[in-house]
C-alpha cells in the first residue's frame, strides 16, 4: 500500500496525531513527541470493532495517549465496509441476520457467525499487514510490533499470519467462528486476553474455549465482572504492563 500522511495535529505536548491513507484506506497514526529517527519507538496496532473510526476516535485516542506515555507509537486503519469506506452489502446483510437472531432469543448459529466474521477477517488481515509494510519504514518507528484490541478473530488471524507481531493484547468481546478457534492452536506469541464475564452479546464458553486453544506458552486471561462496556480502568494498566514487558 502507498502511504500518504494527510494531516497532523498535536493532542497535547506529548502526542502527535496524523491522519493517513493507504491506497484509499483511511487510518490514524499516533507517535510520542520524543520519537525521531535517532530514537525510533516500537509500534502497537490498535484493533477496534466495526463501528467506524469517527465513532471510535475518542476511545482510540485515549488508548494512543496511554501507549505514548509508555514510549510506543500506535496506528489503526478503518475496517472494510465500515466508516467512510464503500458499503459492503454482504456485511450489512450479515449484521441484519445477527440482529434478528439475537432478538429472537435463540442461540446464534455458526452460519450467522461465519457470514459476519470470516469475510471481514479475510479482507482486514491483509490490509493490516500492508499497513505494517508502509509504517515500519518511517524513521521514527521501529519494531517490535504488538496488536491490541478487537475484533478478536482479526487478532488471531494476524498473530498466525504476521511474524512481525510479537505480542497481542486481545479483547474477547465478539463472536468467534469455529475455524478461528482451530487457527488459535497455531498462535505461539505471548497473549494477554481480556474477558468481560457478563458480556451480554457473546458466548462466554466459546471465548473460554478459544483461550484454551491458543498454543502460546505465555497466555494470560484477565476476566472482570460486568458487561461489554463495563471494562474497569485498571484493565488498561495490565495491558500496558504486558506490552512494556514484550516490546521494550
What distinguishing features does this structure have?
Rossmann fold; 9-stranded mixed β-sheet; alpha/beta
Can you give me a brief rundown of this structure?
The protein has 248 residues and is an alpha/beta fold. The protein has helices at residues 53-69, 89-104, 110-135, 152-161, 178-183, 204-213, 234-247; strands at residues 3-10, 15-22, 25-32, 41-46, 73-77, 141-149, 165-171, 191-196, 219-224. The radius of gyration is 17 Å and the shape is globular.
**Averaging pLDDT over every residue, what do you get?**
91
User: Can you write the helix and strand succession as a string?
Assistant: EEEEHEHHEHEHEHEH
Strand segment tally:
9
Number of domains: 1
Low-confidence stretches: none
Describe this structure in words.
This protein has 248 residues and is α/β, with parallel strands linked by helices. The protein has one domain (3-86, 117-247): Alpha/Beta hydrolase fold, catalytic domain (Rossmann fold), CATH 3.40.50.1820. Helices cover 40% and strands 25% of the residues. The chain contains 7 helices and 9 strands, in the order ββββαβααβαβαβαβα. The chain has helices spanning 53-69, 89-104, 110-135, 152-161, 178-183, 204-213, 234-247, and strands at residues 3-10, 15-22, 25-32, 41-46, 73-77, 141-149, 165-171, 191-196, 219-224. It has a 9-stranded mixed sheet, sandwiched between helices. α2 crosses α3 (110-135) and α3 (110-135) packs across α4. The chain is globular. The chain starts with a strand and ends with a helix. The mean pLDDT is 91.
Amino acid at each position: 500500500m502507498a502511504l500518504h500522511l494527510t494531516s497532523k495535529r498535536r493532542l497535547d505536548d506529548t502526542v502527535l496525531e496524523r491522519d493517513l491513507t493507504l491506497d484509499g484506506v483511511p487510518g490514524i497514526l499516533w507517535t510520542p513527541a520524543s520519537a525521531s529517527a535517532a530514537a525510533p519507538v516500537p509500534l502497537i496496532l490498535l484493533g477496534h470493532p466495526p463501528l467506524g473510526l469517527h465513532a471510535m476516535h475518542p476511545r482510540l485516542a485515549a488508548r494512543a495517549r496511554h501507549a505514548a506515555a509508555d514510549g510506543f507509537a500506535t496506528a489503526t486503519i478503518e475496517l472494510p465496509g465500515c466508516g467512510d469506506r464503500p458499503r459492503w452489502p454482504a456485511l450489512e446483510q450479515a449484521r441484519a441476520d445477527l440482529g434478528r437472531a439475537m432478538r429472537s432469543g435463540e442461540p446464534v448459529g455458526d452460519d450467522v457467525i461465519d457470514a459476519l466474521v470470516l469475510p471481514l477477517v479475510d479482507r482486514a488481515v491483509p490490509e493490516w499487514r500492508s499497513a505494517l509494510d508502509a509504517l515500519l519504514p518511517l524513521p521514527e518507528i521501529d519494531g517490535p510490533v504488538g496488536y491490541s484490541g478487537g475484533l478478536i478473530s482479526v487478532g488471531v488471524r494476524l498473530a498466525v499470519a504476521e511474524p512481525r507481531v510479537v505480542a497481542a493484547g486481545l479483547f474477547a468481546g465478539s463472536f468467534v467462528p469455529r475455524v478461528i478457534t482451530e487457527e488459535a492452536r497455531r498462535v505461539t506469541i505471548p497473549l494477554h486476553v481480556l474477558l468481560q464475564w457478563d458480556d451480554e452479546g457473546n458466548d462466554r464458553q466459546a471465548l473460554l474455549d478459544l483461550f484454551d486453544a491458543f498454543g502460546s506458552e505465555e497466555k494470560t486471561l484477565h476476566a472482570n465482572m460486568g458487561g461489554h462496556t463495563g471494562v474497569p480502568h485498571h484493565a488498561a494498566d495490565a495491558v500496558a504492563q504486558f506490552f512494556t514487558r514484550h516490546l521494550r
